[in-house]
């Protein structure tokens, strides 16, 4: 069954000019773009997006990182989207990421790790709604 996931090209990868290469990898892996934008998160927005991590020791640094520059959220669709996208990006810590994954290629550290990926269908739906209104999601194309 086809389902959705939320990718974010994070501020480090935007700043390093890797947006095009990362979108190319995503599309070559068979994902269909349903919505895409560039946005600079406010502190409140970054805190809300990562609320699930608010008790973690790295929460403050994570919020600082995610507000340090623009990021590119992308709603994606594919069969098995959540799992397949997480395979494409690799482990959270690039030291553990498989060869050829986005994080192996572009992440600098466990914090500055280039991309986000949803971890479940339920969170994907919430995260897509966080960035995109229903009118911004292009459901059926080509016609
Ligand atoms: P994920 O992005 O692979 O799902 P999570 O555990 O959900 O990883 O963590 C969210 C984000 O928080 C990571 O992508 C990374 O930017 C940051 N992060 C995770 N673990 C650490 C850490 O141990 N130190 C600093 N930052 C971290
Ligand atoms: Mg996560």
Task: Present the secondary structure layout.
Blueprint: E1 2-9, H1 11-15, H2 19-28, E2 32-36, H3 43-49, H4 59-66, E3 72-79, H5 81-89, H6 102-106, E4 115-117, H7 121-131
Antiparallel strand pairs: 1-3, 1-4, 2-3
Bound molecules: inosine-5'-diphosphate and magnesium ion.
The site of inosine-5'-diphosphate has 10 residues, from helix 4.
Mean pLDDT: 97
Helix content: 25-40%
Low-confidence stretches: none
Write down the Rg: 14 Å
Q: Figure out the total of helices.
A: 7
CATH architecture: 2-Layer Sandwich
Coarse shape: globular
CATH topology: Alpha-Beta Plaits
Strand % is 15-25%
Helix/strand-derived category reads: alpha+beta
Tell me the major beta sheet. 4 strands, antiparallel
Can you list the strand order of the major beta sheet?
2-3-1-4
CATH superfamily placement: Nucleoside diphosphate kinase-like domain
Q: Domains counted in the coordinates: how many?
A: 1
Class, according to the CATH hierarchy?
Alpha Beta
Q: What string gives the helices and strands in order?
A: EHHEHHEHHEH
Bound molecules: inosine-5'-diphosphate, magnesium ion
Find the count of extended strands (DSSP E, 2+ residues): 4
**Intertermini distance:** 20 Å
């Amino acid at each position: 069954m086809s389902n959705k996931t939320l990718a974010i090209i994070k501020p480090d990868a935007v700043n390093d000019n890797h947006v095009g290469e990362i979108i190319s990898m995503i599309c070559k892996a068979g994902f269909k773009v349903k919505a895409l934008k560039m946005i600079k998160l406010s502190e409140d927005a970054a805190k809300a997006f990562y609320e699930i991590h608010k008790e973690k020791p790295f929460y403050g640094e994570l919020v600082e990182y995610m507000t340090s520059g623009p990021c590119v959220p992308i709603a994606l669709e594919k069969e098995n989207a959540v799992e397949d996208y997480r395979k494409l990006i690799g482990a959270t810590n690039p030291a553990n990421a498989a060869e050829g994954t986005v994080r192996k290629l572009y992440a600098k550290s466990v914090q500055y790790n280039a991309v986000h990926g949803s971890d479940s269908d339920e969170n994907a739906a919430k995260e897509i709604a966080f960035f995109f209104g229903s009118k911004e999601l292009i459901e059926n194309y080509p016609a």
